[in-house]
Amino acid sequence: MEMRQDPSICHQTFTQLVEAYQPMLIRLCYVYLQDAEQARDAVQETFLKAYRSLPSFRRECSEKNWLIRIAINTCKDMQRTPWHRFVDKRITPDQLPMAQEIATDEPELMCEILRLSPKLREVILLYYWQEMGVQQIADLLNISQGSVSNRLRRAREKLKTQLERGQYHE
């Protein structure tokens, strides 16, 4: 038996989701896609997909995790398109949307994070900037906790090597 929600409740819930999570999703998509216009498109697509699925959202995870998962999948889909190959992917921390919210006193560190492979970059961003735990990241990315821990370890090692090579020290 399918339960139907009142459309006004769905609209109100959706509006609250957009207000609460849009800035965070724009930053996340921007780091994935490294293009402001594509990031905005990805976020719009994310919310469109979420709106369509909102009545069937079973709340097995938080709304935030649900939206992040949709956004990551949307970004991955966009990265597979031929158009994505022509985007200039050289970005700096000050180009990030709302850079002041994720600003770091260590711009070299952020630049090196942006140079990591997507798999390593995503776990670093989810762990440190979204403050998610290993289990949450594993659930979100549909990988094991061991894989998340391994990616975090490899990302930290790679960052350490890159920063030392660049003569940057804490």
Can you describe this structure?
The chain is mostly helical and about 170 residues long. The protein folds into two domains: about 1-95, Rna Polymerase Sigma Factor, Chain: A, CATH 1.10.1740.10; about 105-170, Winged helix-like DNA-binding domain superfamily/Winged helix DNA-binding domain (Arc Repressor Mutant, subunit A). Helices cover about 65% and strands about 0% of the residues. The chain is built from seven helices and no strands. It has helices spanning about 5-35, 35-55, 65-80, 105-115, 120-130, 135-140, 145-165. α2 packs across α3. The longest helix has 27 residues, at about 5-35. It is globular and about 50 Å long.
Highlighted features:
170 residues; mainly alpha; Rna Polymerase Sigma Factor, Chain: A; Arc Repressor Mutant, subunit A; 2 domains; 7 helices; 0% strand; globular
Would you spell out the secondary-structure blueprint of this structure?
Elements: H1 7-33, H2 36-53, H3 63-79, H4 107-115, H5 118-129, H6 134-141, H7 145-165
Helix pairs in contact: 1-2, 1-3, 2-3, 4-7, 5-7, 6-7
Query: CATH top level of the largest domain?
Result: Mainly Alpha
Poorly predicted runs of 5 or more residues: 91-104
- Individual helix count: 7
CATH homologous superfamily label of the largest domain: RNA polymerase sigma factor, region 2, helix turn helix motif
Share of helix, binned: 55-70%
| Strands, total number | 0
Structural class determined from secondary elements:
mainly alpha
Query: Percent of residues in beta strands?
Result: under 5%
CATH topology-level fold name of the largest domain = Rna Polymerase Sigma Factor, Chain: A
Gross CATH architecture of the largest domain: Orthogonal Bundle
Largest sheet: none
Distance between the termini: 59 Å
Series of secondary-structure elements, N-terminal to C-terminal? HHHHHHH
Indicate the mean pLDDT: 78
Shape: globular
Count of the domains: 2
**Rg calculated over all Cα atoms:** 17 Å
